[in-house]
Amino acid sequence: MADGTADPRTIHLKDYTPFPWTIDGVDLTFALAPRGTRVTSRLRFRPNPEARPGPFFLHGEDLRLIEARIDGQPVSPRIALEGLTCDVPDGPFTWESVVEIDPEANTRLEGLYLSNGMYCTQCEAEGFRRITFYPDRPDVMAVFTTRIESDLPVLLSNGNPGERSEGVAIWHDPWPKPAYLFALVAGDLLAHRDRFTTMTGREVDLAVWVRPGDEGKCAWAMESLKASMRWDEETYGREYDLDVFNIVAVDDFNMGAMENKGLNIFNSSAVLASPETATDANYERIEAIVAHEYFHNWTGNRITCRDWFQLSLKEGLTVFRDAQFTGDLRGRGVKRIHDAAALRAGQFREDGGPLAHPVRPESFVEINNFYTMTVYEKGAEVIGMLKRLVGDEGYRRALDLYFARHDGQAATVEDWLQVFEDATGRDLSQFKLWYSQAGTPRLRVEERWEEGRYTLDLSQTVPPTPGQPTKAPMVIPVAVGLLNPNGDEVVPTTVLELTGERQSFAFDLPTRPIPSILRDFSAPVLLDRDAPEEEAAFLLAHDTDEFNRWEAAQTLARRAIRARLDGRNIDPAWAPALRAVLRDDTLSPAYRATILARPSQEETAQALHGAGLTPDPLAIFRAHEEVAEHLAHALADLLPGLHDQGQVPGPYSPDPDSVGRRSLGNAALMLLSRTDVGARARAQFAGAADMTQSVAALSALLLVDAGEAELQAFHDRWSGDRLVMDKWFALQASLARPEEAVATAERLTRHPAFVWTNPNRFRSVLGAFAGNLAGFHDPSGAGYRLLADWLLRLDGANPQFAARMSGAFSTWRRYDADRQALAEAELRRIQSAPGLSRDLSEMVARMLG
Ligand code: PHE
Ligand code: ZN
Description:
- Keywords: Aminopeptidase, Hydrolase, Metal-binding, Metalloprotease, Protease, Zinc.
- The protein has about 850 residues and is α+β, with helices and mostly antiparallel strands.
- Among the domains are: about 1-190, tricorn interacting facor f3 domain (Immunoglobulin-like, Sandwich), CATH 2.60.40.1730; about 305-435, Orthogonal Bundle (Neutral Protease, domain 2), CATH 1.10.390; about 440-530, Aminopeptidase N, middle-beta domain (Immunoglobulin-like, Sandwich), CATH 2.60.40; about 720-849, Alpha Horseshoe (Zincin-like fold), CATH 1.25.50.10.
- It is about 40% helix and about 20% strand.
């Protein structure tokens, strides 16, 4: 089953049919108890005039049905594995059921569960069916009223608060929503409060809820929330629509956060921050995730998805919106660089291997396996291309039309593209291939110069992917600028639209220009071009496009890595070319930090594989080390000054400027520790007043295999702080040297604080280890075995998360025959384990397929 489609449980997009009923209202009552919570539901059904009649089926899993009634009369439904069926009247009727569930036994973190004594829910994608019997599909939208009975002090649900009395709270959400947006929280929590006045003058009460002890770590999430609310009004004209907006932090959470209507639930790692415990990167992540979840209120909640195949309709768009937000707040160029680098490392890897799937998949076995970088990040890239093709004005008109036309609906990718066609008159039938064809297109560029005429010959190929052997040409917006040899821009950024397999674009120019191609990373493609040797250095010195200037630095770094892999010397002109940019004070420190960054080892492995070679993880590790050593020596005089600039005076602040300075300073420190045997890093660690400086110093030490004492000191100081301890675990697992990595990861799994049922902690050891290229791909196969052992254990408790973590194996076919045999044996061992979950078995089948 190459793409999992042979599995009898496969669900297909083409099989969509609407639910035969609509729901006029949902009343839920929760009598909370750890081992036996009673959920009473009252659903008012009426035949759906837009659907063909069909059997009455309600989803339900792991529920104990206590009683069921229709219009007040007891009924005996037939319980099936994934739900129930029942004979029902022809017209409207009221369904009532009482079920019992066991939150304490819920280790899947899906449905209603307990995390450190706090009740919380996670319903996306199909978790509501673990709470009560219900048509658990996103196209069934209803108005919910929720009554919570519990002695716990804080009782929250979606919408606006209603009556509150001793042991009872009632919430009413006036906006129709699918069940996946339902949420409930109950616990002993404290609020960090604020208010927001909307564009029409309505007052909204805001709160960030946390466990006692964490109340001092909420201010940043709150600031981020207010900034997001304002930005969505100013940029998209979107106003918030309830009297309250609540955010809750929970320690046990599979993902980053969840956009439940009016009650966002967050992984505590995406909320809690204080200067002493969180890094700049943590602050930026919190800001971005708070924005992302808030933006879902319109793109996801007010307009939701008809079915889960349309997931990118909300996720791609919301990622695109949060990227715009971050770009506006923190600088567009640097944000674009970070996103493109992440896309290449993660999404290109997915798109080039056995897990490749379209932005809108056509089938799945387990929807949880499709919350991927392709659906999220490539989906956002597709929207970026659309915006580039129709222009800013066209984009805004299309979005206004989208909100006006589809508010309150469960929409599709077709609806989305239709608003662009209607608002701009553009035919998007070919563009739509971006939603259905998987694989990263390869864009080949050749240039010709004949007296006075410069021609770019563009051609494209889209590689075969599982289930898609042949592809049609896509619409690729290729932003280009042309420079003359003294560095002046003779043709400013122009978007060439490649729609055929090959096309030529000519420019009349008096002298032969130097091209800057795929500016701003205008399409998620691999650029294939035999550029003249000196072009990258020229663009690094002169390009006006921030992205392509960075790309030129990457090209030079790739060449240096490649030289060491082939046993050649590094071009002595490389470091001087970087030096000129690093010393240019007109460039922001944040930007200069990106110039100093090299491609990841994963990217090198990917590139070698793409070139038809077999990557050797150990050789890649060494080559990257040698390149870093080379830079450390060649820039030795410059680095101390850059590092000094990173010491930002005054109290900690995560503003873009301070963050940028620290990122440049710490990028310098990573190199400096290679020449001063950690002296500066040790001093920075000892004097660090905030976590950014502390973690950077510790990393710089671990990179050169020093820092034992600091590691211990860090442990002793922070053993009571979960999120900081996650860093302590992750740093060691990801930075351990190849020959020690497996033993290090194994040792960490035996540490008393390694609570493997907590996803953050599991990720901090095994996720970080799997990202340690040479460590995970240890030639003995011990890395594969370690991860497989833990996946099997995890699968029994939390299948969704086990499946997510298994993706580390997806590149196994890239490597040599010995490694392939070892990895394959582990995958087969997982596959044949008794009682394997649907989640993990689908992943393994696809990876072996
Ligand atoms: N919808 C969430 C987001 O993108 C992600 C999520 C999916 C969270 C599934 C939990 C479960 O913001
Ligand atoms: Zn999202």
